Amino acid sequence: MSESAQPHWAGSRRLAGKGAVVAGASTGIGRATALRLAGEGARVLVGSPAGERALIDSLVDEIRDSGGEAYGADFDATDEASIAALIEQGAAHLGSIDAVHANFADLQIIFEDSDAVSVSDEVIERTLDVNLKGMIRITRHAVPRLLEGGGGAMIYTSSTASIVGEATRPCYAIAKSGINALVRHTASRWGREGLRANAVLPGLVITPEKRNSMPTDFQAEVLELGRSPRLGEPEDIAAMVALLASQDGYWINGQCIAVDGGNTLSRG
Ligand SMILES: NC(=O)c1ccc[n+]([C@@H]2O[C@H](COP(=O)([O-])OP(=O)(O)OC[C@H]3O[C@@H](n4cnc5c(N)ncnc54)[C@H](O)[C@@H]3O)[C@@H](O)[C@H]2O)c1
Fold it and tell me: Ligand 1 center to residue 105 CA distance, Å?
């Protein structure tokens, strides 16, 4: 798509009047999701660790420059107080919180996430602390706020790594599988009060940051094994998050939805 071209969804205002928090929004999928939610009319609060504040500020500027309403915040998924503050700032700035996209993950530690025999305790603990316990922490603080507004949507970013077998990165997959269980619990516990909880399971998504750093032979290999003419883009995931946040997702609850171009079909 050229810079001047309108996206295919231009003009869609499914999220007008809604408030959404995107947790883990500095780059990649979270950034694309914030742009999509704001583009569809949501007021958004976007957060990432303090060290990424410049990226968050530039995202906020981009949304505001295109006529949207956006606010930035710092948080760390391992720090309960900062997650509480993120949600409180969301409520204060947005008026109501109707959707929370819990998208963060530590994707640096993954390179040390070798196999179940050799992986260090440090890697196990860090991976679970950010990628799984962080998700429970944000659920703890987001759910009461969502219920105040009559329910709303908790949307988690899991991964297809949670439903296929892989020879490496066991801790990542275990954390993502835990998110899938959290989704089913949250939907079951609060569904009748109007809360919907779902997970998006991306396949390989080539974010702008990964485009140059990910080996091209690996990208070609995934494409070769897959069921789509192309690899995933952050906007593919953002589109599903927007659907789940909108009224169009009203009767989708407790689901772990692969958005992977059908690529998990080839693992059977
Ligand atoms: N890109 C893929 O191929 C792919 C595939 C499957 C799942 N995912 C998942 O999608 C999500 C986004 O990944 P991405 O590819 O866009 O990568 P990314 O590195 O661009 O995004 C990761 C986000 O997590 C945030 N984050 C990292 N550590 C944090 C911490 N301690 N506290 C708070 N926030 C923290 C970062 O600020 C960043 O915004 C992740 O949950 C990832 O596991 C990605």
Answer: 4
